[in-house]
């Protein structure tokens, strides 16, 4: 390792930069899809759904693979591999042969593996590099990076919409290689996380990294803390199994955390993020390719919502914000259907309500899901439970992206969103009756609450 000191700001910036790349690849298909549909004359929701959702299918496996390999190879090396995979997938997607649906789905799965890896690696690396007093806001920072990446992709889609359709969508997808290259170059200078170095027996290197990002008087105590935690986790890995997740003392908290992660995606957010131009087209008759300003509007709302969450994160209860957000989100989906049943309304009404949904999602369910997942699982099962929660989140995302165009092809958009609205209200009921409050409680207190609930 180089003896030259690396700025902590540089470390934190490029440590989080993977979130921007993750967000860009999630968002870019929103603008590319209308041009792709026209260029390849795609009709029916099935093919469109598979092309869009294949990214999430890859992500289900990417997160699990990256989590396992990062414990063997290191967080930094796995981020580098993910950046390379991003570049390969983006370039391959950008040179897709005409009407090669299977080829494009395959390249999207490759990108999805990289996206899933980033979703697992970035929070892990950042939490291990940041001082304890800053970890509470990490989920907010990670969410801000993701939605910033989505906004950048929406802006690029908007700027490229004047190109010929067969060039526009290919260039939109291929440009994901640029931030991937920036990430790769930046991570080349990043150090490995001290936690991984200590677990690998490389104590001198860990001490050097900590000297760059901690005060001198903090280094010894942090190294000792990492060693003690690593010993506890090593013991837990030997004494627990996947079956342990359903043991009485763990079951209540595992069900709470995993189900919240699943609901976050099944509430319908990705239906908006991926398909808003097509939603506007169906509502107004305006060509989807001409409706690319709406993703930019949603991207701005997401970024402002992430900033707002960071300002209020520790001022309100987790459950209160989830209940508030889920209730307003559910009503935003249900009200257009109710109003339309009584009177003729402006077709754009549904889009306005969708913007309200995005605003409340951005500062409640989007960031708080991962705050809750980070706090709710007992230490002995945290690795397995967090991995299961992440996989279930991607399964929900995959399902929504796949079925939404199929649903809208067979029923009105108001009815489709009303169904998602009911799911939002079901999520609220679940939080009210099955999720404990974690704000202001130590991890040991939360584990005790779960054990008591598990007896009932």
Protein architecture, described:
Residues 11-439 form the Major facilitator superfamily (MFS) profile domain. InterPro entries: MFS_dom, MFS_sugar_transport-like, MFS_Sugar_Transporters, MFS_trans_sf, Sugar/inositol_transpt, Sugar_transporter_CS. Belongs to the major facilitator superfamily. Sugar transporter (TC 2.A.1.1) family. The chain crosses the membrane at residues 12-35, 47-66, 78-95, 101-126, 138-156, 168-190, 252-276, 291-309, 321-343, 349-373, 385-409, 415-433. It is found in: Cell membrane. The chain is mainly alpha-helical. The protein folds into 2 domains: 7-190, Growth Hormone, Chain: A (Up-down Bundle), CATH 1.20.1250.20; 241-456, MFS general substrate transporter like domains (Growth Hormone, Chain: A). 80% of the residues lie in helices and 0% in strands. The protein is built from 19 helices and no strands. The protein has helices spanning 8-40, 45-73, 75-94, 101-129, 138-160, 165-174, 177-187, 194-199, 203-213, 219-239, 248-266, 269-284, 293-312, 318-342, 349-363, 365-376, 382-410, 413-434, 443-454. Helix 12 (269-284) runs antiparallel to helix 15 (349-363). The protein is globular and about 65 Å long.
């Amino acid at each position: 390792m180089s003896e030259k000191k690396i700025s902590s700001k540089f470390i934190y910036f490029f440590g989080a930069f993977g979130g921007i790349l993750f967000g860009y690849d999630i968002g870019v298909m929103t603008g590319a899809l209308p041009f792709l549909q026209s260029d390849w004359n795609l009709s029916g929701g099935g093919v469109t759904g598979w092309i869009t959702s294949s990214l999430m299918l890859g992500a289900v496996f990417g997160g699990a693979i990256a989590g396992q390999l990062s414990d063997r190879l290191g967080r930094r090396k796995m981020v580098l591999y993910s950046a390379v995979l991003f570049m390969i997938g983006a370039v391959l997607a950008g040179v897709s042969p005409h009407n090669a649906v299977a080829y494009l789905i395959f390249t999207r799965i490759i990108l999805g593996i990289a996206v899933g890896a980033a979703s697992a690696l970035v929070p892990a690396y950042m939490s291990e590099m940041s001082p304890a007093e800053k970890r509470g806001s990490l989920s907010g920072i990670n969410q801000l990076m993701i939605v910033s990446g989505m906004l950048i992709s929406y802006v690029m889609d908007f700027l490229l919409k004047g190109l010929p359709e067969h060039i526009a969508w290919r260039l939109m997808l291929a440009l994901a290689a640029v931030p991937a290259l920036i990430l790769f170059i930046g991570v080349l200078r990043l150090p490995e996380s001290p936690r991984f170095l200590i677990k690998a027996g490389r104590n001198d290197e860990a001490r050097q990294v900590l000297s760059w990002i901690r005060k001198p008087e903090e280094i010894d105590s942090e190294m000792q803390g990492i060693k003690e935690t690593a010993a506890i986790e090593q013991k837990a890995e030997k004494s627990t199994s996947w079956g342990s997740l359903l043991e009485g003392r763990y079951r209540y908290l595992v069900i709470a955390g995993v189900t919240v992660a699943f609901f976050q995606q099944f509430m319908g957010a990705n239906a908006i993020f991926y398909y808003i131009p097509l939603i506007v087209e169906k509502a107004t008759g305006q060509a989807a390719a001409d409706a690319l300003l709406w993703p930019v509007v949603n991207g701005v709302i997401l970024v402002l919502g992430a900033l707002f969450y960071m300002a209020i994160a520790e001022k309100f209860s987790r459950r209160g914000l989830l209940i508030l957000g889920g209730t307003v989100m559910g009503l935003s989906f249900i009200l257009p259907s109710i109003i339309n049943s009584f009177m003729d309304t402006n077709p754009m009404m549904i889009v306005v309500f969708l913007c309200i949904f995005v605003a409340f999602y951005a500062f409640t369910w989007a960031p708080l899901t991962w705050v809750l997942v980070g706090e709710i699982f007992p230490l002995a099962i945290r690795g397995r439970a967090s991995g299961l929660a992440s996989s279930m989140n991607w399964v929900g995302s995959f399902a929504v992206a796949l079925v939404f165009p199929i649903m809208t092809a067979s029923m009105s958009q108001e009815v489709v969103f009303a169904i998602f609205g009911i799911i939002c209200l079901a999520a609220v009921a679940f939080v009210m009756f099955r999720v404990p409050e974690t704000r202001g409680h130590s991890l040991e207190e939360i584990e005790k609450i779960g054990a008591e609930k598990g007896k009932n």
